[in-house]
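hey can u check if this looks right to u? its 174 residues, i copy pasted from the old doc so theres a chance i mangled smth
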Amino acid sequence: MANIIVFAILAAVILCSAIFSVMTKSIMRAVTALLFVLFAIAGIYFLLDYTFLGTAQLSIYAGGMTMIYIFAIQLISKRRLQGLKEKLDIKRLGIAALVAVVGLATVVTAQLKSEFFDKFCTVQDVEVPMEQIGTTLMGSEKYQYVLPFEFISIFLLACIIGGLVVSRNQKEDK
């Protein structure tokens, strides 16, 4: 019973923070809300006894959020960070809610037509050994993940360099 209550609290934090992250115009508030989302997801991993995934979530995404904070501070002027006023646009909120409901209906319909829920509801008490997880994460065969990790690292490096170039160009223009 306690697990269900903790899950409900974490799910509410995830939903509220994700909605706030998307709806706010302040980049610092959006990043902070996204940080709450990622911490709550790590909490769900810990709740499910996936300590490896929970610690990876905390260590990787906490560092990523720190990088986003640094880029936000570098790319946005101090005056804009301090004096931003937000207005609630009802029309934009309604369109966003409509798109979200249509997207949710599409996903639920696709999942109901597939066998996902049948497989999800049947409990299989099979523990995957850590050696198999490590081999899958760092292997280069089919259905292994070392190449996607390398592509993502190159992409993130390009994003960092691009952010620094944009930041430097803005400072030189002033």
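Helices lie at 2-23, 27-47, 51-75, 78-82, 90-113, 116-121, 130-138, 146-173.
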